[in-house]
Amino acid sequence: MAIIVQKYGGSSLADIDKIKKVASLIAEVKKVGYDVAVVVSAMGKTTDSLIDSAKNLSSDPPGREIDMLLSTGERISMSLLCIALNDLGVKAISLTGSQAGIITNDRHTDARVIEVRPFRIQDELENGNVVVIGGFQGVSYKREITTLGRGGSDTSAVALAAALNAERCEIYSDIDGVYSADPSFIKNAQHLPEISYQQMQEMSMAGAKVLNAQAVQFAKEAQITLYARSTFNPGKETIVRLLKPEISAGVKAVVHENDVVKISLIIDSILSFESLLIYLEQHQVQIKELNFVSPEETGSDSKISFVISIKNIIGWENRKTELSNKFKNKISFIEGLCAVSLIGEGLNRDNSMLQSTLELLNSQGIKPFGITTTSFRISLLIEKIHLNNCVAAFHKKWIEKPIEVPTNI
Fold first, then answer.
1. What single DSSP character describes residue 305?
2. Tens digit of pLDDT for each residue in 213-263?
3. In what order do the strands lie in the sheet with 370-373?
4. Which residues contact 215 (CB under 8 A, 6 or more apart)?
5. DSSP β-bridge partners for residue 266
6. Cα–Cα separations (whole angstroms), residue 71 to 152, 285, 328
């Protein structure tokens, strides 16, 4: 029997009435004749509430204990959903990430899935059960409970879909797919009926909240088509799959990310750089957009700069203080930044798009603190006070009133 993997986000399970509704939706799919594996997030804002509780006890709680704490949220969701399904006459059983065979590395609060052993799930599906799995969590090869970072339930769902050779993977939330900008931010944001893996991954890495970047990577590697849908407002959807490269270039979406910090460091030896990387890895601080300038270019010591997103770093002020004490006056921090990114095809075939972007920033009186380009993305670091104006201006120029971008074909 064909298998469908579904994932329901926290907003879809926020209260008992919504859990009952989700149970009825699953029951309908089961009635059609599919085997169903369901991945669930914690109810509503449960994860945020648990993090707040930890912060009220400590400014720098241990990562292991945070994982033990946060993993309870999904256990509540999966148990209640199974109770609702059984009440409808649908046999269902709940499994934690570890029981489901999701094996991760030993990195707490931001673990990576390294293997899925879905034997227990397969046995339960063969017994006619709907299997409800707690998302966002697994077990390390050291037999420790781990969590996969924000959006990790998406990763759980796609990893399980690959391991189960599922027909498709459906991601349900309170949004009916992917838009050209955050609909709560830009009222004229346009719905995207389909998007390529690469563009979706770039959007996720740049701050889009619809799908997790690691989940999209799993889907791309396993060639699993993703369907992003609204739980309670069916109709539209976004299909994420392998698409042929577009001949016409242009901006598909404008994505933003808050709470970004740029860090610069003067290093007098490669050992100093390694010391920084070891510290960041020990405290699980992920760096992005690394830039290295050699002594030959500076005429003195090497310089590096990189950015980090501090939104989900518990204990950031402690990390900042420790780095300042460790590197003294050689390290500097620029806070109060955000990143705004243009996502699309062929944005950097020549310099015209970057030139137009900088001209638009200048016309708005916005100074960039950093620029990064890839084949599918142009990202700019700006002050948070300019975020609204910047996103609105970019979206209006390139999506609401698109301009032709020259192509070299």
1. E
2. 889 998 999 899 999 999 999 889 999 998 877 655 689 999 999 999 999
3. 288-293, 302-309, 250-267, 331-345, 377-383, 370-373
4. 151, 154, 155, 157, 158, 159, 204, 226
5. 303
6. 11, 21, 38
User: What pTM was estimated for this model as a whole?
Assistant: 0.89
Class of domain 3-243: alpha beta
Burial 311-327 (b: 16+ CB within 10 A, else e): eebbbbeebbeebeeeb
39 vs 35: CA distance, rounded Å = 14
**Nearest CA-CA partner of 394 in 359, 345, 350, 342:** 342
Strand order in the sheet with 3-8: 92-95, 130-134, 35-40, 3-8, 168-173, 226-230, 237-241, 194-196
Query: Residue 88: what residue type?
Result: L
Residue span(s) of the chain under CATH 3.40.1160.10 come to: 3-243
Q: What residues does 161 pair with on adjacent strands?
A: none
For residue 305, what are the β-bridge partners?
264, 291
Token pair in block for residue 99 = 């029981």
Question: For 69-111, how does the pLDDT look when each residue is reduced to its tens digit (9 = 90+)?
Answer: 999 999 999 999 999 999 999 999 999 999 999 999 999 998 9
The one-letter amino acid code at 233 reads N
Please report the DSSP string for 193-204 in residue order.
Answer: SEEEHHHHHHHH
Domain with CATH 3.30.2130.10 in the chain: 252-400
Q: What whole-number distance in Å separates Cα of residue 137 and Cα of residue 110?
A: 10
Adjacent-strand bridge partners of 168: 4
User: In degrees rounded to 5, what are phi and psi of residue 156?
Assistant: -55, -45
The phi, psi pair for 24, rounded to 5°, reads -70, -35
Under a CB-based contact definition with an 8 Å cutoff, are residues 240 and 194 in contact?
Answer: yes
Give yes or no for a contact between 380 and 339, defined as CB atoms under 8 angstroms apart. Answer: yes
Residue range 252-400 in CATH 1.10.10.60: no
Q: Give the type of residue at 42.
A: A
- Across 165-186, b (16+ Cβ under 10 Å) vs e yields ebebbbbbbebbbbbbbbeeeb
Using DSSP, state whether 280 is helix, strand or coil: helix
